Give the backbone structure.
Amino acid sequence: MKNSYTHDNNGNELYHAIDDKVRKVNYADLYEETPEEWTPSSEDISCELQLLGLGDWEPLNFNFSEKEWEDNQKSIEHFYTTFQPREGILNDRQSVLLYGLEGDHPSRPTGLDQIRRELGYMPLEEEFKYPTEAQKLLTSYHDVFDYFGDMGRSFVIKLNAGGFYPYHRDFPFITRNTIRLIGFHGKSSQDQLEWEVAGQRQPIIPNTLYYVNTMKRHRLSSWKHNSDMVVLNVPKTWKNVLKIMSVLNGG
Ligand SMILES: [Fe+2]
């Protein structure tokens, strides 16, 4: 049997993400270099203030069929590949890419740190706008894709027992170009998947898509297999914020 630290479930050698220490950035220095890029626009401020007013963890009114999700899983299961492995750490996370760079395969490495190592630079979330073969097969999300139109980097992620994300913030600056929607499917439930955002354990309604404020510090861990999630990057525009407001659970 292959070593899990170095090979994925299919026996392929793992492609490790770049070391965290390289990633630390100084926002004040970045601002000095390109102030226009690091100064929030009025649309940034409008969108972020409105989203803050809604909450950090907001369920949306999309209906998902459990049966369709299970059928979709059968169609995409051969695409699953290890998500962003790091040297010396066991972390059972498997992903399938839904929207990527032009020509991307659903099994392409999905994590930004891996992609940065591969390309030598970090592409923007919204550059991953091309649907992969798996996007077409994930029919249970076609209503969501149709509703928002353009999407950024998006993927299905399956956390098995022991799969986790340590504390992090996705992009902590209000100039972020995309916002995160996260759907919970498969066996994802309170019993086996823990999500903490801003110091609080969050409730998980199965088969539900949420707006999640991933600027705030968060972490998650799965105690059992098949905690399935869909991670969507939606372009942060005032129109998309209004679209989110139009499908809020609870009005
Ligand atoms: Fe995150």
